[in-house]
Amino acid sequence: MIFKNVLVASDFDGTLKNDNGEITTDVKSAIANFMDKGGYFTVCTGRIFQGFHLYNSEYINAPVLLGNGAMAYDYEKQEVIFNDAIGNEGLECIKDVLQHYPDISIEFYNFEKVCAINLNKHSEQHFTSQGIKFHIVEKPEDAPLPWTKVMIAAHGCSKGVQEVLEKHTEINFLRTTGDYVEILKKGVDKGSGLLKLAKFLNCDIQDTYAAGDGYNDVEMLVATGGGFVPENGSKEALNVARYITRSNNNGCIANVIEILEDIYD
Predict the structure, then answer these.
(1) How many helices (H) and strands (E) are present in the chain, helices listed first?
(2) Contacts of 263 (CB under 8 A, 6+ apart)
(3) 150 touches 182 (CB < 8 A)
(4) Most confidently modeled of 53-57, 175-179, 255-259?
(5) What is the 3-state secondary structure (H, E, C) of the chain?
(6) What are phi and psi of 127, to 5 degrees?
(7) Burial readout 108-144 (b: 16 or more C-beta within 10 A, e: otherwise)
(8) Mean of the pLDDT values across residues 210-224?
(9) Element (H, E) at 105
(10) How far apart are CA 62 and CA 136, in angstroms?
(11) What is the pLDDT of residues 102-158, one digit of tens each?
(12) Gap between the Cα atoms of 190 and 237, Å rounded
């Protein structure tokens, strides 16, 4: 049981899965070996509860981190471990965004009910591609609180939306060059979520590891005992990597476990 109380959390797309969207047999076998030796393996993803349909006890044996670290959900026991969601403090920033961009589409992710204002084709596709049932509302107050996260479909105005959000220190948002701007509770990110899960599982920080390839993985890569990044990861992730592994198309996570075998054996 050399991996007792060792926790590994992996990003899903681009890290655990290859570019064809598959978790290959060698990766599954490596994870099974890790878990058989006492380790905890889980996923940390930007998807929320309603949009994550990929739980499998074959390769996950710990609560899953959802909403970029805002929530931990135990799929085995079907219970929320924690949900660090946005409360009333988020209303002002949303109203401010709508003041500047009154027609912009905004998605509100409550654990029980997902809502949207100004639904456009981008948000509709966002929902349908993840199998998420949603409700259309007229104003943010109509979307039930708390919100695990809020997504703004800022196509063509992402930079401007982020400039509006910069003024709102009561929330956190993920800075991006893309079209979707994600808002989280202040202090919440993948790193804070992973550390909170590690504490729940009685895993020390030095025995907690993260693997990820994207800019939104940076916080968890630097928060733990070691950050693993596939060689084809983003510049932002590679810049903070402690270990660079084989690509996600060549068994990134299997390589992570090989490295851990050398560390703990």
Answers:
(1) 8, 14
(2) none
(3) yes
(4) 255-259
(5) CCCCCCEEEECHHHHHCCCCCCCCHHHHHHHHHHHHCCCEEEEECCCCHHHCCCCCCCCCCCCEEEHHHCEEEECCCCEEEEECCECHHHHHHHHHHHHHCCCCEEEEECCCCEEEECCCHHHHHHHHHCCCCCEECCCHHHCCCCECEEEEECCCCHHHHHHHHHCCCCEEEECCCCCEEEEEECCCCHHHHHHHHHHHCCCCHHHEEEECCCHHHHHHHHHCCEEEEECCCCHHHHCCCCEEECCHHHCHHHHHHHHHHHHHC
(6) -70, -50
(7) bbbbeebbbbbbeebbeebbeeeebebeebeebeebe
(8) 94
(9) strand 105-109
(10) 34
(11) 999 999 999 999 999 999 999 999 999 999 999 999 999 999 999 999 999 999 999
(12) 13
Place of tokens 């924690």: 82
What angle do the packed helices 252-264 and 25-36 form, to 10 degrees? 30
**Separation of alpha carbons 246 and 242, rounded Å:** 14
pLDDT score of 226 more than 90:
no
DSSP 80-104: EEEE--B-GGGHHHHHHHHHH-TT-
Query: If DSSP codes are grouped into helix, strand and coil, which group holds residue 188?
Result: coil
Q: Which helix (H) or strand (E) holds 181?
A: strand 180-185
| Confidence grade of residue 162 (pLDDT, cut at 50, 70, 90) | very high
Q: Which of 255, 254, 260, 245 is closest to 59 using CA atoms?
A: 254
Chain position carrying tokens 């409700």? 135
